[in-house]
Amino acid sequence: MVDYPNRSDLRNPATRKVAFTGQTYGQAAQQASSQQAVSAGSAPADVAAQQVARPVPGAQSLTRPTERPDEPITAGANIGAGPNAMQAGLIPRMIPEDPVLDELRALYGMFPNEDLANLLSKYGESKF
Questions:
Q1: Which of 10, 19, 71, 126 is the most buried (most CB within 10 A)?
Q2: The pTM is what?
């Protein structure tokens, strides 16, 4: 049997047993038998009760008391009271200053040559 949990028009048995009129011979009987073959499903109230959110095992309530009452909510952020990210031991995400320069340095490290050294010196690198 097929169940239609998302179709409220197919869940209500009262709407499914309709007298089929104005059709050609045999179509009404065919529609009636096809509706009897398919389960009417649950009533809308039953489906809504099944879809109630259930807590995830191990999840904590967001309204529980704080576990760190003496720590400001901005601890670890670079704004507000409390230690900033560096003081809290959080490693900041390092964004390279210039990806082209980093690539040139890597290439020079693998294949040191005069052309790459000149290019790096023009780029502002004084150690090459």
A1: 10
A2: 0.27
Tens digits of per-residue pLDDT, 3-18? 656 666 666 655 555 5
| Residue partners of 44: CB distance under 8 A and separation at least 6 | 8, 11, 12
Q: Tell me the domain boundaries of the chain.
A: 8-50, 95-128
* Identity of residue 36: Q
Contacts of 87 (CB under 8 A, 6+ apart): none
Cα–Cα distances in angstroms (integers) from residue 29 to residues 21, 23, 76, 88, in the given order = 10, 10, 71, 75
Are the CB atoms for 72 and 78 separated by under 8 Å? no
What is the pLDDT at residue 31? 79
Cβ-based burial of 3 (10 A; exposed 0-12, middle 13-18, buried ≥19): middle
| 39, two tokens | 């389960």
pLDDT at residue 111, as a whole number: 93
> Structure tokens of 119?
């290019």
Spatial neighbors of 67 by CB under 8 A, at least 6 apart, are none
